[in-house]
Specification:
The chain is an all-alpha fold and 202 residues long. It contains 8 helices and no strands. It starts with a helix and ends with a helix. About 3% of the residues have low confidence.
Length: 202
C-alpha cells in the first residue's frame, strides 16, 4: 500500500512540475510576443519598415497564424531600403549579386502577399483594407517583373476601393511599358476621370 501511495505522489508531483514548466513557457512566449508587437508597431509608426523586418521574422516564427503581421512583413519587404542598388562602376559580378538579391526580396514580398491577401479575402471578405493590400501586392509583382499580373491586381484593388485611383495611373504606365498604347490611353483617361470624381466628392 505504501508503495502505491509513493508512486501516486511521485506521479502527481511530476505532473505538477510539467504543468508549471508548460505554464512558464506559455507565459514567457506571451511576454516575448507582446514585446515584439510593441517594437513592430513603434517602428511602423515611424515609417521604419526596414528596421522592423528582423522583429517581424522573429514574431512570425513564434506566432505562425498571425495574418496581419504576415501582411506587415510583406509590406516591409516591399518598402525595404537596406538593399544596395548596383552601380555601373562596380564589377559585373557584384552588380549581378546585388540585382539578384533585390529581385529575390520582391519575389518573397509577392509570395507573402499572395498567400496572405487571398487568405484575408477568404476569412474577412469585407475588410476595409483589402483593396489597399491588393494595391501593395500589385507593386511587388510589378517590381518582380510580373507586369500582366500587376495590372490585374491594380484593377482588383480599385474595384475593392474606388479611392485607389492611382491604380489606373499605374495600369496605364504598365501598359505603356508593354507597348500597348491604346490600353495605356484608355487607363490614362480612366485615371483623370476617377481623380476628378474624387475631387468633386470632397
Amino acid at each position: 500500500m505504501t508503495g502505491k501511495i509513493t508512486i501516486y505522489i511521485y506521479s502527481f508531483c511530476l505532473f505538477a512540475l510539467c504543468s508549471f514548466s508548460m505554464d512558464g513557457q506559455v507565459s514567457k512566449r506571451k511576454e516575448e510576443t507582446s514585446k515584439l508587437k510593441k517594437q513592430i508597431y513603434a517602428l511602423h509608426k515611424e515609417d521604419s519598415e526596414t528596421e522592423s523586418i528582423p522583429y517581424l521574422e522573429k514574431y512570425i516564427s513564434v506566432s505562425k497564424n498571425e495574418l496581419y503581421f504576415k501582411l506587415l512583413y510583406a509590406k516591409s519587404l516591399l518598402y525595404r531600403r537596406d538593399l544596395k542598388v548596383p552601380s555601373v562602376s562596380e564589377p559585373i559580378e557584384d552588380r549581378i549579386n546585388k540585382t539578384k538579391r533585390i529581385q529575390e526580396n520582391y519575389k518573397l514580398a509577392a509570395k507573402t502577399f499572395q498567400e496572405n491577401v487571398l487568405h484575408l479575402q477568404k476569412v474577412r471578405p469585407r475588410d476595409s483594407n483589402l483593396g489597399r493590400w491588393y494595391y501593395l501586392w500589385a507593386f511587388s509583382e510589378w517590381y518582380s517583373d510580373n507586369k500582366e499580373k500587376a495590372i490585374k491586381l491594380f484593377l482588383k484593388a480599385v474595384k475593392l476601393d474606388y479611392r485607389l485611383t492611382e491604380s489606373y495611373y499605374n495600369v496605364a504606365a504598365l501598359y505603356e511599358s508593354l507597348g500597348q498604347w491604346k490600353d495605356a490611353e484608355l487607363y490614362w483617361r480612366k485615371y483623370e476621370k476617377a481623380e476628378k470624381e474624387l475631387e468633386e466628392e470632397d
